[in-house]
Write a structure and sequence with these properties.
alpha/beta; 8-stranded parallel barrel; 8 strands; TIM Barrel
């Protein structure tokens, strides 16, 4: 599946093919992900992010809901659309879900949410998947205007432990049908990967299945190779991890940051010739720091 390789960003700014209008167009509407503890280190998001940037707030198991609500409110008050994660497996009951969603809407002013299962080994209550959360109807009842669901370009062993994509495909078709009856706009936000070829093939396969939800492609912002490999293994990144592992064999390049520039240039070129592709926007995981990713974005838009 290795059709394209992510390469080091050293000298990338000097390569004219990386400054194409297509890449700039692809980066319009790019979102970014933060956690309460990383957001607390940023004095002003307005000083580092383009106006209107969607900011996801990740809810890791053990993070108090008060910290989540406080972070979402703070960033909303700065004028950004904020999308808190709502992970099914850490929510112990429908009552808790309703409380959280009401707090996001009324206290923090959030109108959007990323609905996902959440990769924790122990389920806290009755919810095991994003579908379980969506079936409650609470997001529509409480007036959420946009909902994103998770996508897995390289599959997901938690969902399909025997391999393949049968279960995850069935779930995606369910969400596609759900979107037709929901008042909220919906899209797919993906885990990060490191090769454009598998991503393109996955998007084409979804489209052939009848999926019309736009894809917001997850990519890792500029990050040291060692850090990136650590996160990729922890997050269950699939076959494209081999791109990083091959790179790691060259000891002279271990400290050279990787950036998604060339991979996204390939995606942008593909979109130029396939304007109806589901690949619509980019979502940045700032594994090398929020400011580092924000600077990269400003340099390439």
């Amino acid at each position: 599946m290795a059709l394209f390789n992510l390469r080091a960003n050293k000298g990338a700014a000097d390569k004219p093919e990386l400054k194409t209008g297509a890449l700039s167009a692809l980066l319009e509407g790019t979102s970014i992900e933060v956690m309460p503890r990383t957001a607390a280190k940023i004095e002003s998001f307005a000083e580092i992010l383009p106006a209107g940037t969607r900011v996801y707030v990740a809810h890791l198991d053990g993070t108090p809901i008060d910290e989540m609500v406080e972070t979402v409110k703070r960033i909303t008050d700065e004028g950004f659309p904020v999308m808190p994660h709502v992970p099914a497996r850490i929510i112990d009951s429908r009552a808790t879900l309703e409380t959280w969603l009401k707090r996001y809407r009324t206290e923090a002013g959030a109108e959007q949410a990323l609905v996902l299962a959440g990769g924790v080994p122990t389920v806290a209550g009755e919810f095991t998947s994003s579908i379980d959360l969506l079936k409650t109807g609470l997001f529509d009842e409480l007036g959420f205007k946009r909902l994103h669901v998770a996508g897995h370009p390289e599959g997901n062993k938690d969902i399909d432990p025997k391999g393949g994509t049968a279960v995850v495909d069935e779930a995606m078709l369910w969400k596609q049908n759900f979107s037709k009856n929901s008042d909220a706009e919906m899209a797919i936000a993906t885990q990060f990967a490191f090769e454009s070829g598998p991503i393109i093939a996955w998007a084409e396969r979804l489209q052939a299945m009848g999926i019309t939800l736009p894809i917001h492609l997850g990519v890792a912002g500029p990050t040291k190779l060692q850090t990136l490999i650590k996160f990729a293994i922890a997050c269950g990144v699939g076959p494209s991890l081999s791109v990083l592992q091959k790179r790691a064999m060259d000891l002279t390049k271990l400290l050279v940051p990787f950036a998604p520039t060339e991979m996204l240039a390939e995606i942008a070129a593909y979109k130029t010739s396939h304007p109806d592709s589901l690949l619509e926007h980019v979502h940045l995981f700032p594994l090398g720091g929020i400011k580092t990713s924000a600077t990269w974005l400003s340099e390439h838009k």
